[in-house]
Amino acid sequence: MSRVESRATPPSPEEEPEAAGPEKARTPVATGPAETRTAEAAGSPETRTPEAAGLVAAVAADGTRTPVATAAPPEDRTVPPVTAPGPPTGRKSAARRREALAGLAFVAPMLVLFLVFRIGPTLGAAFLSLTDYRLSGDWAFVGAGNYARLLDDRLFWEALGVTALYTALYVPMTVALALGTAVLLHRTLWLRGFFRGLFFLPYVTSIVLAAVIWKWIYEVEDGLLNTALGGLGLGPVDFLGSESLVLPSIAAASAWKGFGYSMLILLAGLQSVPREVTEAAVIDGANTWQRFRWVTLPLLRPVLFFVLVIEAIGAFQVFDAMYVMTAGGPVRASYSLVYFLYDAGFKFFDFGYACAVGLVLFLVVLVFSLIQRRLVGREVD
Amino acid sequence: MARLRLPVLLALVALVTVTPFAVMVLVAFAPPGGRTLPGALDVTRATWQNFADVLGGADVLRWALNSLVYSLVSVVLILLFASMAGYAFAKKRFPGREVLFWAFLATLMVPFQATLIPYYLLVAELGGVDTYWGLIVPTLANSQAVFLMRQFIVQLPDELFEAARMDGASEWRVYTTVVLPLIRPVLATLGVFVFLWHWNDFLWPLVIGQSEAMRTLTVGLATLEGENVTINQIMAGATITVIPCLLVFGLLQRYLTDSIATSGMKA
Amino acid sequence: MKTGFTRAAAPLVLLCLAVLAAAGCGAGGGGSSANQVTVWMYPVIMDPKANAAYWGGVEKGFERAHPGTDLRIEQQPWENRDQKLATAFGGGKGPDVVLLGPDQIPQYQANGVLRPVDGAIRSARAAYRPAALKAMTLDGKVYAAPIYHTVTSTLYNRRLLAKAGLKEPPATWAALKAAAPKLKRAGIATLDYSASGEASLNMSFYPLLWQAGGRVFDESGRRTAFAGPEGVEALTFLVELYRAGAVPRSALTNANLFTDQALGRQQVAMGYTNTPADAALAAQAWGSDNVIVGPALGGPRKQVVFGMPGGLGINAAGRNTAGAERFVAYMTQPAQIAALGRAGGFFSPRSDVTVPGTGAHAKEYEAALAYAFPGEPHRAARQLQALLAPEIQAALTGEKSPREALTAAAEAGDDLLARQR
């Protein structure tokens, strides 16, 4: 790692002639300190340029004060002293190579962690799925036996259906809630931080706790919701005891717990939409909805893509909420795939089979994410 | 009418998010058995008993310290490594970039329950059982963090980096002086998330720690819960666990979304 | 530009380092030596302080009796118990001795990580209650040495019974059926039940099955037996009560957490698988005057309750099996069993030891112990429960008749058993 690193941080500056063209003059002031930013935001990009260049240079001269640098990663020591800018080499391939090396060097620490602690165990699980592994350490190779059994297992298909339905309920619910609250907060100038904190409260709790609380709220006998419905002369509704209501009820509880995450990310995304763009749209006579639909939403695409992918991945792996609220019932109406996996592994100690379930789920989610990428993320990269 | 709509909506959402939370605190302070709302709402019957039952002379400070180590060290290292990797994935062209990125992302899709055994075997083989590094290092491989970083950095205009490079800054310097300050709100946001994920984490600290000295708060509190724990005690434990999270959120609150470069995004 | 950020980050990093240093000092603790014995224990004694004090005393007592042995009893949470134990065994980091219940033994035994404890209990063997020992036995070998015995029995809410004008607590199925309409008129449900998939059938359906004279497995253990007429009778009894509103609708999601159940919340008049700990919690929540502990519920053929032993198992790959066996032998002595029983409100798994009752209802539970049945040990017991529990739910919701539900479960169960070695 450090060998790559030392080669990857060449003393000479990166200098790509085409990048130093007219674009350079429009360097925006992303880096302004909090006190001056408001003033800058009000100005047009052109008027801000000189300050911007100065700021970047000032920061460059004093890199050691950046907070994360004090964590002293190994790379820090290999950084050579800053040299004066050399003449443009004009050799594109050398620059490309340098860029590639720098890229790999920046990825390296995470990459090593990944190969060891993510890819490694995943390959391990893939291997176990081909065996009848026992905790004592002995195993026999069973080939595709676990997979063949899985395709024949009615419970597996039922769990897959439950999981797909849950995902279809949870993801739109959560993303809509997150987007709605993010837009709401973005519009709010008064006590924004306070409300953001309140909206984020559910995310601070653990999912187990949220599930316990929502189990009470949904109770038939004297739950909060049924008490309220009773006051209106309705109900009681058996939210968790009805096969058709159980998944929407769990999805709603999980959305309550989970939306704060996507909300914060979307809010950060919304705030990075340049104000001039929306202002221009106002001048063009666009109404609020049109501005949101045709201006803000497209700019939000990379972040929205992130949120959709992450929420879908999380939804496919739902387990804790069901474990606490319904234990998979009634009649397996909320028995998800990871629940099935958990039972196979840690209830019945059928580890090879459990690993096979994990890998099949992985493939399902991968295919789903690739489709999502085509639909939502095509302009992201 | 239209001017009233915003505050009303804000209040409504806040009501929905705060109510269950308030219920948790009320039940934590309610006498045993007082779990239904009228009973729990009776503030005159409020008691510290559940907290005393839960803590019962246990070494809570030690557990909280372990949780703090687990969470804070992870926050710092994940922010560093994930922002570096996210920057490279977003702004550097290198061979295998797409494949690597999707490989990172793909590891998120394997359920933890399926890899738990090989994961544990690996860390045990490396001698990480019942150690701080065994607790922390494996959890640093956080692809969600890399993904988030990449999605935000990809929006930053390239000219920013070019300008710095033209001034003679090295790659590392560009990263520390241009990239990091620009993504400050994302760092704060991710910092909050990573803290919460680790602070509330139960399964990994449970399986990797063995001695009493390695216990985190979530695990420690669970060791005090007998099979017949009351719901009031559970809520008291939850209230204790949640307080530091609220503190961290409060502390980082003002950095959270004070705009990524208000007008610096590529349109 | 970095002013604000640096202000926040620098102290954070400093705090981090300080915390790491502080924590580092206390961590570690020497490696495992040859005469160290590690024991994983769970909070079996309800009060955390009493639990810590009791096991601390055991450490001291054992080390005094066996000088040179370093005994470490580590308290583990009940939560995710099997995940922790399975990963540890898989990674070769399992404890030398661990507390096990009868339903865990088949899984761990099949994985080859348990060593029979027959050697360690040589002297205690004859003194054990046969049922307690049988629950821990597989293929003729004992895999956990019982150190305590639990028992459940009926638990009634006196105030609710009085409200419905009932003078006698209903102690049999017939009395229960007769009481249900009276309680319903008073707006009270009769019988609490847990039909959740995570609630053990040993604490819900199986006692009814046994009371009706049925069995879960047939004598050979190769076929299921619960779908016979006795099983249908038991499930019909339950379903009729549920339909009539005598079993609360929360039964479907009820976990075994007393204060969160309809019984704990005083919505239902009685339970039939309640532990002494439940009775203690009930005394807190309802007032001790309102708590009645009755005899084991009587069915059409039998009077049976569930009660199981807890025992110590030994790691087959442990580094100190001799030390582990010494500890197991130590804990199974009459004096230790009596002491643990007193501290935790347990009963004795040995017929030559009687734990002097301490709780308000010790006498009633002692009487119920005579009817206690620890369940039918079987390799596929857990898998079978997972197949049967959803079918019972289907019968309760009316999706299937009791006979259809049991037949469906039995077919799947027989399939499962046929696939076993």
UniProtKB/TrEMBL annotation, chain B:
<comment type="similarity">
    <text>Belongs to the binding-protein-dependent transport system permease family.</text>
</comment>
<feature type="transmembrane region" description="Helical">
    <location>
        <begin position="68"/>
        <end position="90"/>
    </location>
</feature>
<keyword id="KW-1003">Cell membrane</keyword>
<keyword id="KW-0812">Transmembrane</keyword>
<dbReference type="InterPro" id="IPR000515">
    <property type="entry name" value="MetI-like"/>
</dbReference>
<protein>
    <submittedName>
        <fullName>ABC transporter permease</fullName>
    </submittedName>
</protein>
<keyword id="KW-1133">Transmembrane helix</keyword>
<feature type="domain" description="ABC transmembrane type-1">
    <location>
        <begin position="64"/>
        <end position="252"/>
    </location>
</feature>
<dbReference type="GO" id="GO:0005886">
    <property type="term" value="C:plasma membrane"/>
</dbReference>
<dbReference type="Pfam" id="PF00528">
    <property type="entry name" value="BPD_transp_1"/>
</dbReference>
<dbReference type="InterPro" id="IPR035906">
    <property type="entry name" value="MetI-like_sf"/>
</dbReference>
<keyword id="KW-0813">Transport</keyword>
<keyword id="KW-0472">Membrane</keyword>
<feature type="transmembrane region" description="Helical">
    <location>
        <begin position="174"/>
        <end position="197"/>
    </location>
</feature>
<feature type="transmembrane region" description="Helical">
    <location>
        <begin position="234"/>
        <end position="256"/>
    </location>
</feature>
<feature type="transmembrane region" description="Helical">
    <location>
        <begin position="99"/>
        <end position="120"/>
    </location>
</feature>
<feature type="transmembrane region" description="Helical">
    <location>
        <begin position="7"/>
        <end position="30"/>
    </location>
</feature>
<feature type="transmembrane region" description="Helical">
    <location>
        <begin position="132"/>
        <end position="153"/>
    </location>
</feature>
<dbReference type="GO" id="GO:0055085">
    <property type="term" value="P:transmembrane transport"/>
</dbReference>
TrEMBL record, chain C:
<feature type="region of interest" description="Disordered">
    <location>
        <begin position="398"/>
        <end position="421"/>
    </location>
</feature>
<keyword id="KW-0732">Signal</keyword>
<dbReference type="InterPro" id="IPR006059">
    <property type="entry name" value="SBP"/>
</dbReference>
<dbReference type="Pfam" id="PF01547">
    <property type="entry name" value="SBP_bac_1"/>
</dbReference>
<feature type="signal peptide">
    <location>
        <begin position="1"/>
        <end position="23"/>
    </location>
</feature>
<protein>
    <submittedName>
        <fullName>Sugar ABC transporter substrate-binding protein</fullName>
    </submittedName>
</protein>
<dbReference type="InterPro" id="IPR050490">
    <property type="entry name" value="Bact_solute-bd_prot1"/>
</dbReference>
